[in-house]
C-alpha cells in the first residue's frame, strides 16, 4: 500500500484561538511498522504519544517537536494513538491492525547453563542493551531510505518468528536474519554514531548505531568489527563482516531496528520512505 501522509490540525480547548499543526505518517498497519509524528513547537508543555501505557517522547528539532514510533508486536485488533499533555488527551486516532502470520523457527545449538558469572554477564549485558536502545538524542538522520546492510538480502529467519531452541519454546525473534558467507561486508543502514561495538554473549560481536530521535540499528554475530564506540558513520559505510559469533548456528547477519527501545520489523522499514 502506498504511504500516506495525514496532515491534521489540532485545536486545544484550553487555547481556542490557536491551532496546532500536526503531521502523522504511518505507511503500513502491521505490527513492527515505524511511524512518524510531528508537532508545532508552540505547544506549551511537554507532550507524549501513548498506547496502553507505552510512551514515546518528542525531541525539539528546528522549530518542531518530532518522534518516531513503532506499532508493538503484540498489538491485535485496533491500535489507538493518544497525544497527551499531562493528563489531558489532545488527540486520538485509531487504526485497524492488519493481520500477519509469523513463522516458527527451530534451531539446535550447544548451550551452557546460565549460572554464576555467566548469568551475571548475561544480566549485565541485557541492562546495557536496554539502556543504549532507549536513548533519544535530539538530532535526525538525513536519509529517506535505509541502505541495505548487505549487498544481497537472503532472509533465513524473519522478524517475529516464534523461536523453538533445542525443542523448547523460547523468545520471539526480534530482528531479521540474513544468510551470507563469512567475511561479507556489513554496511551501516543510516548515518549516525556508534554507541556499542563489542562482544556480547548471545549476539557475539555486535554493533549498535544511534541515528537520532530514538532510532537505532543493531548488527550481530559479526566476525569482525570495523568501527569504534563514539565513531560517526555514514549510510553505506562498512562497519563489520558477517560471522557466526555468539549463539549462532552458522554465518549470518542478525539485523535489528529499534525505535525508543521498541522493536520494529527491519523488512518493513527497508520498504518505507522515512520522514
Automatic annotation (TrEMBL):
It comes from the Bacteria. Residues 172-266 form the M23ase beta-sheet core domain. One of its GO terms (molecular function) is metalloendopeptidase activity. Pfam families: Peptidase_M23 (PF01551). InterPro entries: Cell_wall_metabolism_enzyme (IPR050570), Dup_hybrid_motif (IPR011055), M23ase_b-sheet_dom (IPR016047). The keyword DNA damage does not apply. Gene3D superfamilies: Glucose Permease (Domain IIA). Keywords: Signal. This is Peptidase M23-like protein. It comes from Thermovibrio guaymasensis.
Amino acid at each position: 500500500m502506498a504511504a500516506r501522509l495525514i496532515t491534521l490540525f489540532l485545536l486545544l480547548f484550553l487555547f481556542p484561538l490557536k491551532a496546532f499543526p500536526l503531521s502523522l505518517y504511518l505507511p503500513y498497519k502491521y505490527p513492527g511498522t515505524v511511524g512518524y509524528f510531528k508537532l508545532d513547537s508552540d505547544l506549551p508543555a511537554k507532550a507524549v504519544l501513548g498506547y496502553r501505557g507505552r510512551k514515546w517522547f518528542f525531541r525539539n528539532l528546528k522549530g518542531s517537536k518530532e518522534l518516531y514510533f513503532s506499532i508493538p508486536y503484540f498489538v491485535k485488533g485496533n491500535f489507538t494513538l493518544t497525544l497527551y499533555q499531562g493528563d489531558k488527551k489532545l488527540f486520538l486516532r485509531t487504526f485497524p491492525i492488519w493481520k500477519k502470520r509469523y513463522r516458527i523457527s527451530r534451531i539446535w545449538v550447544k548451550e551452557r547453563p546460565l549460572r554464576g558469572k555467566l548469568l551475571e554477564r548475561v544480566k549485565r549485558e541485557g541492562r546495557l542493551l536496554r539502556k543504549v536502545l532507549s536513548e533519544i538524542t535530539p538530532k535526525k538522520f538525513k536519509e529517506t531510505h535505509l541502505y541495505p546492510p548487505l549487498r544481497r538480502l537472503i532472509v533465513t529467519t524473519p522478524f517475529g518468528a516464534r523461536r523453538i531452541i533445542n525443542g523448547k519454546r523460547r523468545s520471539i525473534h526480534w530482528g531479521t536474519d540474513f544468510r551470507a558467507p563469512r567475511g561479507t561486508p556489513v554496511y551501516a543502514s543510516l548515518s549516525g554514531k556508534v554507541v556499542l561495538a563489542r562482544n556480547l554473549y548471545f549476539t557475539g560481536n555486535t554493533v549498535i548505531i544511534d541515528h537520532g530521535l530514538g532510532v537505532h540499528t543493531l548488527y550481530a554475530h559479526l566476525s569482525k568489527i570495523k568501527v569504534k564506540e563514539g565513531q560517526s558513520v555514514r549510510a553505506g559505510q562498512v562497519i563489520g563482516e558477517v560471522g557466526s559469533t555468539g549463539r549462532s548456528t552458522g554465518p549470518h547477519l542478525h539485523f535489528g531496528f529499534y525505535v525508543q527501545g521498541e522493536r520494529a520489523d527491519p523488512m518493513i522499514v527497508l520498504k518505507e520512505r522515512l520522514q
